[in-house]
Description:
alpha+beta, Kinesin, 16% strand, three-stranded antiparallel sheet, flat
Amino acid sequence: MQSNLAPAGSIKRRRIDVSADTQDYSPSKGGASAFPQPSEAHAALMAGGLGGSDDSDGSEDEELGPRPTMQPRSENDIQGRLRDLEKIAIYMAQKTRTTKKAKKQLRVELDENSTHVAQLELEKGVLTTKLDTVEKQVHKLQSEKRQCEDELEETQRKHKSQMSQMHDDQQRLQKDVAGLRDELEETRTNLKSKRSECTRLESTVSKQASDQIELESSCRGLRAKVEQLEDVVNEREIRIAELEEDVATRSHTIEELEAKLRKEETMRRNLHNTIQELKGNIRVFCRVRPLLGEEKDAAAALPISFPSCEDNNQIELTQTSENALGRTTSKAFPFKFDRVFSTESTQDIVFDEVSQLIQSALDGYPVCIFAYGQTGSGKTHTMQGPDTISADEKDAQVLGIIPRAVKQIYQNTSKLAERGWEYSLEGQFLEIYNETIQDLLAPAARATTTGKQTKLDIYQDSEGHTRVKNVTTVSVDSAERVHWLLARAAENRTVAATNCNERSSRSHSVFTLYLQGTNTLTGESSSGVLNLIDLAGSERLSSSGSSGDRLKETQAINKSLACLGDVIAALAKGNRHIPYRNSKLTHLLQESLGAGNSKTLMFVCVNPSPLSAQESLCSLQFATKVNSCQIGTARRQAAS
């Protein structure tokens, strides 16, 4: 019984789905006339089977008759109740079959209507397309019509303009015809005049014919002269060709000589370096300054003497002292150096010996020249010259090594330019004061935002050269430029008074000149460095009379000079470790002190005064240590 009742609910749901499917075909969308009328099965289904209720309410069906109902029976009349239920089940089964049949018919009608709707939609699309095509054709025809009207209007305008132009042309031509008639009359008048002139010219031509005969005679004479001149020109062209050949030969000879000269320049550099190596890559010169002022009164008792020697390389210092018995004793200390300059030696004589090392720097070697000695022994005078130099004295004998070296370098670079060498020179001027590096060329306003001076540190560049960070480097583009550098450095250098000198330099000054050379003809290059150092005065604390800041300065100076002595001693002994970094001075001069490719010259400056005998002895003894040091063969630096 339960299985027979289940389709009733299913039929109810299908009734709802059918009504949903058919609502799209209402007259408001497709039009009532476009769809067929509902069939009798549809009407029966809507009115009876699908429209009814599943409850036993006693409703009737037109085909099946009234719906059976449960008759009132007693509780014990089970057979009667079963019969009633069987009637109801039979009725429901028949009703279900009727409903399915009606639903199937509705599905057929729905498919027909869907096909009809699709066909109508297709026809609608075709008609819409045709309508669009017709509208486009209409728009195109309207556009062509407007275009034709515009062309007609333009043609009429042009026609009107052409008619006006033709009218103007007609009037102009009429004027031209009138003008031509006037010109024709004028031409006829001119023709008469020309005919009369032609008659006159004929008579002139006959006269000129006779003149032509005379000119031809003169022309023959001129041709003869021209032939003579052509012979002279040919002779001169031959001479010019001979001269050009001679010039080409001489040019070739000049090129060969220039090439030979370049080879000889290379040979000269090698020979010059060999000579310098034979003289020693570390050399010591001794210079004794003249007596000054009141010192001349004690000239008879000078402790310095110069033994007779053709090589001028010996000096002797006699030290006088009293023994415990009060007797005066004298002891002579002989010294021998590479060169000794007496009190009579001028700046020219001194630089003449130094100039060969300056040439080595130009050839591409690191060169270091430093002046060592007690305060007031003439170090600054030897390296720079007098404190003030007038314009007339810049090329005089008072100039020191630094300005003379730059002048020599510029003279030689000018000569080398003819052999293809081009040089650039850059200089820097430093001082080492209390183990602190200071830039003597930096502007006074050069400081950080905190008011502190820019820190200068020593470092090794990528090529292993010793450099100073943040230092001012200027282009030394002329020999006169060095005078400005010296003046600027003198203004900034630290000086103070001591017992040994009323204006004593309290720092080591280091002038460095970088020389970069390139030969555009051979492709050679060189990189030389020239260090010119004026060391601070070396003096014992007991004799300097220093105190306070001066005492600290003296201690710092003596410490750096002691470190210099340690480096020299280590080099003399051939130690593997050289204590370059014990002071800023030796660290800065590392490349020039003991390096295999360096050349070093030390000037030991001596004060001849008897009061300075002990300090002079210390200086000479230190110079002897330096003179005993030997380093390897110097190698020229090629610019990378």
